[in-house]
Amino acid sequence: MEPEQLGLEFLFQPKSIALVGIPSNSANPLVDMFLRPLVEFGFAGELYPVNPKGSKVLGLEFYPSIKDIPGAVDYVIGAVPARFSHQVTQDCAAKGVKAISFYTAGFSETGEESGAALEAEIVNTARRGGVRVLGPNCMGIYCPKGRLAYWPDFPKESGPVAYLCQSGGNSIHLVWMGAPRGIRFSKVISFGNACDLNEADFLDYFTYDPDTRIIAAYIEGVKDGRQFLKVLSKAAEAKPVIILKGGRSEAGTKAAASHTGALTTDDATWDALCKQLGVIQVSSMEELADVIVTFLFLPPCGRNVAIVTAGGGVSVLAADDCESSGLAVPPLPAEIQDQLRHCTTGIGNILRNPVDLSDVFFDPQGVANALRIISSWQGIDLLILPLIGGVPLQSGRRMSYDVLVDIVPNWGTLPPKPTAIVVQPGTHPDASQDAFRVQQEFASAGFPVYPTMVRAAKAIDKFISYHQRRGQSQQEDRNCKI
User: Fold this and answer.
1) Span 280-327, pLDDT tens digits
2) What 3-state DSSP class applies to 141?
3) DSSP code of residue 144
4) Which residues contact 18 (CB under 8 A, 6 or more apart)?
5) At 73, phi and psi to the nearest 5?
6) Are 150 and 142 in contact (CB under 8 A)?
7) Alpha helices in 298-449 (DSSP H)
8) Is the pLDDT of residue 432 over 90?
């Protein structure tokens, strides 16, 4: 990490945390959001609940104020009404606190002069006292390595994805949505109004963070366009940067202003900026998760796809989804089709590509043999397996799902072709729960897993396009040096 970037490391490795405004009622949502996760995560430092009316919560003694805490305090979580926020900031400055995150709302995002003035007053007081401010109107920091979390049941394992998010709810949504698909995070930052520390600061930090390989972001607006452009350029050169921009429509712009007080940019400028810098744009939270999954688990590959599934209609629609997203579905040559006929019954199969293996999808060995034959052809770069849950068989198995799971331990014996899995529930009442389980099993085995074929195809297209642009750019750089 570059020396100048070490200044924010204290945010993710505090030795002590004070929680101001936490109630003594252990069933209160504020306790569940901020204190209980720290206890359950095994935060190794000191935890200090602060509330003049409190006595004890989760076995921890309350302190009347931050200044009454006997030890040093590195980080403060503020969950007080807005009218008390300035006093808390003054206490933090007097105590020598390094950083405070305010869950509290009621500042510049309201559009009212009084809220904006209070926010400015907090920033001025904090800066004079050497305190960095996260928020207000934010959830704060999730860092598994530092045992920090702001929501129950977040994964305790670290991963290579960093996520800066202007929305607290969207930060929680991506962590939950990504967990069963194998997404794990180095750090997640919900930064709200960004009155002090903002998206440029965090993007700059993640560029040099050795624990981060992929940078994801949900941004509604930027505080300093010039600085943001500078750090985004560096970040996109160093690592994949995937951004979901909120507030692109007229209604969304108004909502962003009232949500975090964001100053948005027009669509044309934003699109041109992302294209110029090689930033990957997505249009929804679901697509953000899909693209992250692809970058995590799929190696760079070409666009020629073999689709292997059970069902003619599924095959047709899967081919349509691939080709409409820029992927190619070349027909298998006659010799490959002949080999497939020898390992199938030939009843109800389509062997051209897409490959419909309806008759052998009940037989793990038959599927493994077919995949081995298809993967051996050099005319394809990638396998996609769309699995749609069916009615339970008499044996208690589900068509497609568990048969493929049975093959996973022996996948290493197949030719090394990148493989993507689509796990889509069928219409049976048990299908959704079954799909969730199977999705987790494939993700644990290191496969990119998607809930629909069209989402898989779009995410894979963005992934391939990214690497193609990078390859062209690097070749141009080499040519310039010759």
Assistant:
1) 999 999 999 999 999 999 999 999 999 998 888 889 999 999 999 999
2) strand
3) G
4) 48, 49, 50, 63, 66, 69, 73, 75, 76, 77, 97
5) -125, 120
6) yes
7) 312-324, 334-342, 364-375, 401-407, 431-444
8) no
Name the residue among 421, 40, 365 with its Cα closest to residue 31. 40
* In the block, residue with structure tokens 């799929």: 298
Preceding peptide of 354 cis, ω within 30°: yes
Amino acid letter, 108: S
Q: How far apart are CA 212 and CA 471, in angstroms?
A: 22
Q: Which residues contact 130 (CB under 8 A, 6 or more apart)?
A: 93, 96, 98
Query: What radius of gyration, in Å, describes the C-alpha atoms of the chain?
Result: 26
Q: Crossing angle, helix 113-128 and helix 85-95, to 10 degrees?
A: 10
3-class DSSP assignment, residue 156: coil
The reported pTM is: 0.91
Least Cα distance to 388 among 452, 460, 447 occurs for: 452
Structure tokens at 226: 């010039």
CB environment 122-154: b (16+ within 10 A), e (fewer): bbebbeebebbbbbbbbbbbbbbebbbbbbeeb
Query: What is the DSSP secondary structure assignment for residue 413, as one 8-state letter?
Result: G
Q: Which long-range contacts (C-beta less than 8 Å, at least 24 apart) are formed by 151-155?
A: 151/33, 151/37, 151/175, 152/32, 152/33, 152/36, 152/37, 152/40, 154/37, 154/41, 155/179, 155/184, 155/185
Q: Which residue has the tokens 């009212």?
A: 112
